[in-house]
Design a protein that fits this description.
Four Helix Bundle (Hemerythrin (Met), subunit A), alpha/beta, 15 helices, 7-stranded mixed sheet, 6-stranded mixed sheet, Gyrase A, domain 2, binds guanosine-5'-diphosphate, 18% strand, Rossmann fold
Length: 462
């Protein structure tokens, strides 16, 4: 609920040099004035905006008295020039766990209520400080595990996607305005755009939305990550490849067959692409019941995979069993790359594999040879090389994609109606639908449920 004043610890829970507590809402200054006493002559309420003020931090001692518990810094941000758009005070104290809890309790005793997960950002969105796609990008910044994810999230936070959607929205608004004028005053020439101009403007919109929808391929590969399975017979080097990609000894590498019995998962970058990696037990036949479970999990992971790295010992031709595996993979629907490992052994039977797989790469998981080629191939398969994560508007989640795609469909329907020669009013509903779907991408028109769902993924204090 807007109107009340919320407080939370914004730094992670734990012991640290400093901790930051945030208070936002109409009562922020009055509440903090009870908890923070500046050392200088000025009261906190008179502190200039965005200036650090040194002072004493007070908390109730259990007997109703407020006593000094620490010294620290308070910074006042007056509405609307704050992150949330409301009066906000940030208090920095020393980073002890008990101390931080004590200061938070003091803020609550002074009249604030505990903030819910993502509530500061939610308020920023509701107060028009940022669009929904920027808020989502902020969430991605907090979650980023690879450099490319961070770059893309940062670009999103700067409002690139929001700006792109605003441009398209504005074009559609102009088109609709002309359509309405034509409907209301059919005999007069009052509209900005003629029927032909409306058709060409809609075509441009269609191209723009189409281009935006297409960015999701790259956004998905970077921001959400590609579920990836590494599979192959025992001892071909699956764990070694996994470790190479993850960059450390995450899976146990041994020369005893069938040692990887569980499915490990890890997020790692391969070039620009984020892989959500399952390292698996393989797909061979086995009598060992524990290994059997691992193999069943492999099959489950395969069903969800978008990329399969099928590892072979490239120094020898595929066995009958491996050819059977290749057949199974073809049916899985995932993009399959045959990874011919152990090039360092000097012999690579590439031809045998090339005839069976659309994509093959030769590598040595042992010395890293060929890993760049593998990364380049995966980038080519899952991203658009022309898109620049540092500057382009990119759709980064399924929600944004669904809205943009719905807008594209609506614009196509509107255009089809006009091109088929129907009266101009026949395209109104679709042009309006396109506008509201585009507005959904950055949250200008989005349901309360969706907003709640998005902010529930944030942490408390953000
Ligand atoms: P997995 O059973 O498929 O997971 O295979 P591992 O990664 O455990 O490797 C099996 C054996 O092959 C180990 O002895 C590794 O050291 C070895 N191996 C893995 N990759 C290479 C490679 O590129 N070259 C060579 N020569 N040996 C490798």
């Amino acid at each position: 609920m807007l109107g009340d004043t919320i407080a939370a610890v914004s730094t992670p829970r734990g012991k640290g040099g400093v901790a930051l507590l945030r208070v936002s809402g109409e009562g922020a200054l009055a509440i903090c004035a009870r908890v923070f006493r500046p050392k200088g002559s000025k009261a906190l309420a008179d502190a200039p905006s965005r200036h650090a003020v040194y002072g004493e931090i007070l908390a109730p001692n259990g007997e109703g008295e407020w006593v000094s518990v620490d010294d620290g810094i308070a910074t006042v941000f007056r509405a609307p020039a704050s992150f949330t758009g409301e009066d906000t005070v940030e208090i920095c104290c020393h980073g002890g766990m008990l101390l931080t809890e004590t200061v938070l309790t003091a803020l609550l005793a002074a009249g604030a209520r505990p903030a819910e997960a993502g509530e500061f950002t939610r308020r920023a969105f509701l107060n028009g400080k940022m669009g929904l796609s920027s808020a989502e990008a902020l969430g991605n910044i907090l979650e980023a595990q690879t450099r490319e994810q961070l770059t893309l999230a940062h670009t999103g936070m700067q409002g690139r996607l929001e700006a792109r959607c605003a441009e398209i929205y504005e074009s559609l608004r102009k088109i609709l305005a002309s359509i309405y004028v034509k409907i209301d005053y059919p005999d007069e020439d009052l509209a900005d755009l003629s029927r032909e101009e409306i058709v060409s403007a809609l075509k441009i919109c269609k191209e723009q939305i189409h281009a935006l929808v297409a960015t999701y391929r790259t956004g998905h590969a970077i921001a959400e990550g590609i579920p990836t399975v590494i599979c192959g017979r025992p001892n071909v080097g699956k764990s070694s490849l996994y470790n190479r990609i993850v960059g450390r000894e995450a899976a146990i590498v041994t020369s005893v067959e069938g040692t990887t019995r569980d499915v490990l998962t890890e997020t790692a970058a391969l070039g620009r692409v984020t892989l959500r990696l399952f390292d698996t037990a393989g797909l061979h036949e086995t009598e060992d019941p524990v290994e059997r479970i691992g193999i069943d999990r492999t099959k489950q992971a395969l069903a969800e995979a978008e990329l399969v790295l099928a590892v072979f010992d490239g120094s020898r031709a595929p066995t009958k069993e491996e050819l059977h595996l290749a057949e199974q993979l073809r049916e899985s629907g995932a993009v399959t790359v045959a990874v011919l490992n152990k090039t360092d052994l000097g012999k690579v039977c590439e031809e045998e594999y090339r005839t069976r797989f659309a994509h093959t790469v030769s590598i040595s998981a042992q010395n890293g040879e060929g890993m760049d080629a593998l990364a380049a191939l995966v980038e080519r398969l899952f991203t658009d090389g022309a898109l620049d994560s540092r500057r382009d508007a990119v759709l980064t989640n399924a929600r944004q994609h669904a809205s943009a795609y719905t807008a594209l469909e609506a614009v196509c329907r509107a255009l089809n109606a006009l091109e088929a020669g129907f009266p101009i009013d026949m395209c109104c509903t679709d042009a309006e639908a396109a506008m509201s779907s585009i507005a959904e991408v950055d949250g200008r028109a989005v349901s309360e449920d969706i907003v709640s769902e998005i902010f529930s993924h944030f942490c408390v204090g953000k």
